[in-house]
């Protein structure tokens, strides 16, 4: 009996191996496409390899509140079911879905079936007497500041290399809905820095939600006192 089953067991193992090494196509809201291959490294830790724009990027699995988050430096791939987010620290965050059809058009979510992610949008201006350094970076965070006795909890982060961009600078960030606790106080914080030197920061709290729904956030950053006149 066992001998009769061996060929079928071998076939099953082969099919599973093929499925694990299969490249899954994704298409994003900006029209871009890439493929993801989910495997493990030499010691059995889960990882994904992204084939995107002629590049091959391998990201290890890291802890996440929900879904599967793969991250290495500025590269971040967060998947939940057929939905996924991808960012590389340079371009705007992409919202993607499994498939190889026409470019993804994201319709407004129906009230009865909310999306897995909350869409936070806004613009950032800054008051400067001189031009920013060419290597200045804008760091934007969506955070939960509901606990007065603890640091703000970062829910999403986006880094934009300014490189001469003119203000206001528009941003869009997607936050995992499962991270929004019932009593959460969701705000947006931003800063402009050069390396470890802080140049601009917000000195006002900017709520990201109004009556539980995302609101367009318009921020103005103030120059840090120690950098004025430079």
From TrEMBL:
InterPro entries: Lipoprotein_YbaY-like, MliC, MliC_sf, Pilotin. Pfam families: MliC, YscW. Keywords: Lipoprotein, Membrane, Palmitate, Signal. Residues 26-90 form the C-type lysozyme inhibitor domain. It comes from the Bacteria. The keyword Lipoprotein applies. Residues 1-19 form the signal peptide. This is YbaY family lipoprotein. It comes from Candidatus Dechloromonas phosphorivorans.
């Amino acid at each position: 009996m066992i001998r009769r089953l061996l060929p079928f067991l071998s076939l099953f193992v082969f099919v599973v191996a093929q499925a694990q090494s299969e490249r899954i196509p994704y298409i994003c809201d900006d029209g871009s496409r890439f493929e993801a291959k989910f495997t493990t490294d030499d010691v059995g830790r889960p990882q994904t390899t992204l084939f995107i724009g002629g590049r091959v990027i391998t990201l290890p699995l890291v802890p996440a509140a929900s879904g599967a988050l793969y991250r290495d430096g500025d590269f971040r791939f967060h998947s939940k079911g057929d939905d996924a987010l991808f960012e590389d620290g340079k371009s705007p965050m992409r919202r993607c879905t499994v498939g190889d059809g026409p470019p993804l058009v994201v319709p407004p979510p129906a009230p009865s079936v909310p999306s897995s992610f909350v869409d936070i949008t806004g613009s950032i201006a800054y008051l400067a007497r001189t031009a920013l350094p060419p290597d200045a970076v804008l760091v934007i965070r969506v955070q939960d500041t509901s606990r007065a006795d603890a640091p703000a909890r970062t829910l999403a982060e986006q880094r934009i290399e300014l490189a001469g961009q003119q203000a206001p600078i528009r941003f869009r960030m997607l936050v995992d809905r499962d991270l929004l606790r019932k009593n959460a106080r969701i705000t947006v914080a931003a800063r402009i820095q050069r390396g470890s030197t802080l140049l601009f920061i917000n000195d006002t709290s900017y709520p990201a939600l109004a009556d539980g729904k995302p609101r367009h956030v318009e921020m103005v950053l103030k120059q840090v006192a120690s950098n004025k006149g430079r």
